[in-house]
Amino acid sequence: MPTMKALQLLAPRKTVLAEVPVPRTPSDGLLMKTRCVSICSTDISFYEGHLYPSEYPVVLGHEYLGEVVDIGPRFSGPVDIAVGDRIVYWGQTDFGGFAEYRSLRPVFSGEDKQDIFWADRDFFDDHRAAAVKVPDTLGDLEASFIEPTTGALRSVLTHPPRIGDRVLVLGTGPIGIIVGSVIKRLFAPHSVVSVDANPRRNTHAEEHFSERAYLPDELKRDVADNTFDYVFDALPTVKAADREQDPRRLAMLKLKPRGRYILYGASQEMQQFDTWLMLAKGIDISSAPFDVTSFPMHRTANVIVAAAHMLSTGIVNAKGLLSTVCPFDDYDRLVDILADYRTTTDLKTIVDFRPRTARIPLQAGTGRAGAGVLEQEVRR
Fold this sequence. Notes:
By secondary structure, the chain is an alpha/beta fold. Helices cover 27% and strands 28% of the residues. Helix 3 (146-158) crosses helix 4 and helix 3 crosses helix 9. It starts with a strand and ends with a strand.
């Protein structure tokens, strides 16, 4: 049986580079050779133990770009797929990306296929995944951001701001920047500002979309309560011993009565929300569901096409999101990146599986891409 290398998580903060079997090609699906996988805060939450699988080991990674190397005999669909095509998906699993190959049962825009099952995390999931064939206008590094852009769009399109809303983006990591960019350019807000405790990420936010990027103390001091119509919460797991320092409570104070609060980030650890402010103001807290009985995968298949378009047209600045490229064969560096992720000022880090001969190093730390060695792919 052919084998491949994969980065396995054995327990929180414990990884190993393992030799595992190459997955079989699904009869109605695809086998893909991995090209690039960007690191997601979900990967870090699993690494740190804020999210946890039903059993270990697991292979982290899901912001995935792969090249089709085999097609199942029963595969069919509205998109013409051939060996060598590049595919990005959303869904199917949080796992499996940091490996040299992975299998996929895709659902493309225009299809209505499903294979629903009850997940052990209290929602109905699908063994299939929304997928898109990557357009030639996107290089490999840019294309790996289609998946996080899809996740952000699911939330914004499901719960959009109204024309003329005053918008606050809470947390300006990559998802906050994607959301702010989309809202700023497509939804005609009155204003879009942001808050983050990381000054460098505030700088990134102002480069991409934010009219003013506040530190938490600045937001508390300089912005009156009941200012914003719409808050998008892109924060990770938060542990605030002092409720006066809790960023979510601060955002609720700044939200108008009957304002809308959109929750994006996922954690299986209980998070604090100020129930008094929710009741006192009648705050509407919403989220885009993972449950496929409410948000079917074929609908996400339409969203992922829109995400690819937004990256292709520059509505979301893919090059500006990229901070670091780490070759998959540099295992020690990759583990260090996972361990230090929460303290970094970087935006997106891409794990690059392509042969080194297919990459040309660029000058480090150029422009908005921040510090780190960036790579330019040889066009297909």
